[in-house]
Amino acid sequence: MNLYDSLPDAAGTIFGAEAVGSFAYSLLTVDVPTASWIPALEIARDKLGCTYFDWLSAVDEPGTGFRICAHVVSLENHRVRRLLLRTTVPHSAPSLPSAVSIYAGAEWHERETFEMFGVVFTDHPNLVPLLLPENL
């Protein structure tokens, strides 16, 4: 059995005790604390075979913070297995380590999320606005 197939039940075992897994609308989702963001992405890539980075963005959750979401995919054995990894950063300190060292494709998405939501991705190689004029 592939480790991916043990999810969402084994989320706490695979991603750490505080991780919570769910499966809804044909999408496997794992929520992790911010301290586990980078290790969770590494686990997804190295242990679950999610080598395809699809997208990263944020959702503004009023009263809670910004929920950062990364959608990654495993394409092993001609089978598509999707995983949505999420974490939440507070509105008062919207910062998270950059995922670029794990998924190079995250670079553009983190820049867009920084520009649209103000989430700072530490260690990002070029965290500058993409779309909006500088005076906004």
What distinguishing features does this structure have?
3 helices, alpha/beta, five-stranded mixed beta sheet, 33% strand
What does the oligomeric state look like here?
single chain
Helix content: 10-25%
The backbone outline, from C-alpha atoms, is globular
Please tally the β strands and state the result: 7
List SSEs in N-to-C order.
HEEHEEEEHE
Strand content: 25-35%
Mean pLDDT: 95
Count every helix, treating DSSP H or I runs of 4 or more residues as helices. Answer: 3
Task: Outline the low-pLDDT stretches.
Answer: none
- N- to C-terminal separation? 51 Å
Could you give the order of strands across the largest sheet? 1-2-5-4-3
**Biggest β-sheet strands, sense, barrel:** 5 strands, mixed
Structural class comes to: alpha/beta
Nearest-angstrom radius of gyration? 15 Å
Account of the protein in words:
The protein is an alpha/beta fold. The chain is built from 3 helices and 7 strands; from the N terminus they run αββαββββαβ. The strands form 2 sheets. Strands 1-2-5-4-3 form a 5-stranded mixed β-sheet. Strands 6-7 form a two-stranded parallel sheet. Strand 1 and strand 2 (27-31) form a beta hairpin. The N and C termini lie far apart (51 Å). The mean pLDDT is 95.
Give a quick summary of the entry:
The protein is α/β, with parallel strands linked by helices and 136 residues long. It is built from three helices and seven strands.
Secondary-structure blueprint:
Blueprint (H helix, E strand, L loop, with lengths): L10 H5 L4 E5 L2 E5 L5 H10 L5 E10 L3 E10 L6 E9 L5 E3 L8 H12 L2 E3 L14
Parallel strand pairs: 2-5, 6-7
Antiparallel strand pairs: 1-2, 3-4, 4-5
